[in-house]
Amino acid sequence: MAADGPTTWDELLAGPFKIHSVKTHNNLLLAAVRDRFNLTDVAFHRMMRADHLHLSRALYELDIAYSSLANALKPDHRRREIALLFDSAVASLRSNGWYARDVAEAWISGLPRPRKGVPVNSILRGDLLHAPADKVQAAMEKSVVYHRPYRVTHSQLVYCVYVTNLSKEQADTLTATAAEHPAYFGYADCTGRSILKTHLGLSLMNSGLRVGDMILEGADVDNEPNGAGLPFEALGFTPTAVINMLFLPFLGYRINSHLTGQNREDNRSALNTLSPDAAHLESPDIWMTPGRYGYLQDGKHRDSMEQAGLLHLDQPALEAAVSKLVAQGYLYNLRLDEYGNLLYTALVDVEVEDGRYQTFTIGLRFNPEDKRVELMTFF
User: Which tens digits make up the pLDDT trace of 256-275?
Assistant: First the structure.
């Protein structure tokens, strides 16, 4: 979106838009702004729409289209999410306590390089939050591919780098380069649900968004990028600052871990961004037309319905089941289309067999007149 002149409120609020995600998890920025200024739902909606416009224009000045970032901001079960695990005690001994800098070259050098198109990845980093060592060890035993043996003595001695939107080949390259560092002890494929992923989702902070050879990072207004002093430039990447008020809500990645109620504020903010009338739809009762019910039973979405264990349900039971799933899910693809429809999707995890979960996408339409939510697709 070019910065081609002023935009009036009427033009902004009436025009079509698409926002990939709104994230509040692991940062208090939006909640603090809402509370500090006592924002109404209408005021919050206007602020988010204006901030998204400002972000789109700031990215345009960097020759980046906001629309091109979707794959880095939304989970995709066909692409890998990889957690690289390091022993921070080992790295600290090598670096006088600067363990994050010490291991940085090992993972930065393994990031995907621009080829065709502009590949994008979200990067999160940090120590595991305090948790019982035995529980973390048990979670690792179920998920980690060990490069060398490791025993958890304290969860906060585990330092993790989490990278999204990887092909298998890119994931293999990333883990191979990380394995060259003596503090590295293994990786976990976090594409699906796991107990370890729950720990990571509660612990890790967004570090950056790789777009081609740029690393976009959130920063305060007057701050330079790469405040951590990581060797991005030496390894061919250009750190680029985006102010936190724009980066954290719109360019942050949320690790969709086991649902513990942590998505509540995210979903409230997302729905309020979609429409001020949707702000309090925490647990909407989903409905569908008889024609839509028949389409889901017999159309191209039949296989997904069967895999999710929903195919046998009559319409009222299916509406109740989908309502429960949506209330627990994470929301993406907030948009007003050219026909005036307010649309969004919910990513939901369904246990399909033997404790294994599968992710499904539920397409929804919000009607501001009666504040009801209609099911459109399930796949």
Answer: 876 555 678 888 999 999 99
**Alpha-carbon span 208 to 54, nearest angstrom:** 19
- Give CA–CA dist 111/166, Å, rounded: 9
pTM as predicted: 0.93
Q: pLDDT by residue (tens digit) across 7-19?
A: 788 888 888 999 9
Residue 62 carries which side chain, given as an amino acid letter? L
Beta pairing partners, 65: none
Q: How far is CA 130 from CA 78, 137, 145, 199, in A?
A: 31, 13, 22, 9
Judged on CB neighbours under 10 Å (0-12, 13-18, 19+), 12 is middle
Alpha-carbon span 222 to 219, nearest angstrom: 8
What's the farthest any 2 CA atoms get from each other in the chain? Answer: 66
Contact 85, 162 (CB under 8 A): no
Which residue is it, tokens 């006592």? 38
| Enclosing H/E stretch for 77 | none
Is the C-alpha dihedral spanning 39, 345, 171, 117 positive or negative? negative
CB 256 within 8 A of CB 190: no
DSSP 171: H
Count Cα atoms within 13 angstroms, Cβ side, for 243: 11
CA dihedral sign, ordered 164, 169, 174, 178:
positive
- Tell me the mean pLDDT in the region 291-306: 89
93, with CB counted inside 10 A (0-12, 13-18, 19+), is: middle
| pLDDT top residue among 334 and 118 | 334
Q: Decide: 33 and 92 in contact? Cβ < 8 Å.
A: no
Structure tokens at 334: 């907030």
Tokens of 211: 């777009």
- Whether 332 shows a pLDDT value over 80: the answer reads yes
Given a contact cutoff of 8 angstroms between Cβ atoms, the answer to whether 225 and 241 are in contact is: yes
- CA–CA separation, 131 and 364 (whole Å): 37
Q: Count CA atoms closer than 13 A to 247's CA, side-chain side.
A: 21
For 153-175, write each residue's pLDDT tens digit.
999 999 999 999 999 999 999 99
Rg of the chain over CA atoms, in angstroms? 21
Backbone angles phi, psi at 378, to 5 degrees: -150, 115
| 286-287 vs 372-378, strand pairing mode | parallel
For 284, the token pair is 């909407």
